[in-house]
Amino acid sequence: MLKAGVLGAGHLGKIHLRLLRESPRYDLVGFYDPDSIQGKKVSEEFGIPYFDNMNALIAAVDVVDIVTPTLSHFDCAKKAIEAGRHVFIEKPVTHTFEEAALLMELLRKTGLKGQVGHVERFNPAFQAVRGLIGTPMFIEAHRLAEFNPRGTDVPVVLDLMIHDIDIILSVVDSEVRDIQASGVSVISSSPDIANARIAFENGCVANLTASRISLKNMRKSRFFQRDAYISVDFLDRKVEVVRMKDAPATPGEFDMILQNAEGEQKQIYFENPEIKANNPILDELEQFADAIEKDLEPAVPLGAGARALDVALKIIEAFGRGNSL
């Protein structure tokens, strides 16, 4: 078992504490939070040791799980890596791309493992269709949330849209060519609703919308590729897969046949991939244990987190200008 310690005891930090305590892959040593009152309260609630010194906790573990505000990610991770500890860092990986690059270099020099908490990679609906997404050429993503004061200190791009940015970058094997975006502040001092258009070198275009002032919650992405349409509902954990193949010479009575302008006939059929229920946060934490113990590449290495952050920051830069590249 890997000895683990958590930095941060907020809403998400408490979820990590509970899951690490339950996981057979980790021995949860304790946690640190700069707010001693909150720390002692959480310690009593969960029955988990509270450390009032971050360095002491880092020294006592093998893995440091960083679930602190983004501004402190770099300092926390740097201390942990320099102490010889593996690091799991919640998204966004750091406040700036330069900070992420420095952490990547530290990991390279030390040979330690680092993973970023882009949890939607482990969503069972996405997992069910990931192998079916080949070369998408148009992607549409909507991530809408009802207003919640928590998280409004950062633009909605870093709060919500970054999930979809990471998913898109993980399936599009091409460099970003152009970014156009717009954002509007409605309640917060930073944008609450945003739209971005990302164009890739291979011709793929992704259109993303994120809002934290919606009347309903939605987390849905649609992938269009040659002979296939794939829809992923990250919220309700459902998928739709519509595929096409050459129509048979003699179609069946119930076959759905389309004919294009050139006279080519295609048969439409539906696939129903099995969606295996899971806890995505637990899965990402336990996959990180695998990466450490078996010396594997983490599912979401710091490089992937840095790339998602880079695109997110360029979207924010593009607000009001039309493009950022």
UniProtKB/TrEMBL annotation:
Domain of life of the native organism: Bacteria
Domain Gfo/Idh/MocA-like oxidoreductase N-terminal: from-to ranges: 3-118
InterPro entries (alphabetical): Gfo/Idh/MocA-like_OxRdtase_N (IPR000683), Gfo/Idh/MocA_Oxidoreductases (IPR051450), GFO_IDH_MocA-like_dom (IPR055170), NAD(P)-bd_dom_sf (IPR036291)
Domain GFO/IDH/MocA-like oxidoreductase: 131-216
UniProt-listed PANTHER family: BILIVERDIN REDUCTASE A
Name assigned to this protein: Gfo/Idh/MocA family oxidoreductase
UniProt organism field: Robiginitalea marina
Organism placement in taxonomy: Bacteria, Pseudomonadati, Bacteroidota, Flavobacteriia, Flavobacteriales
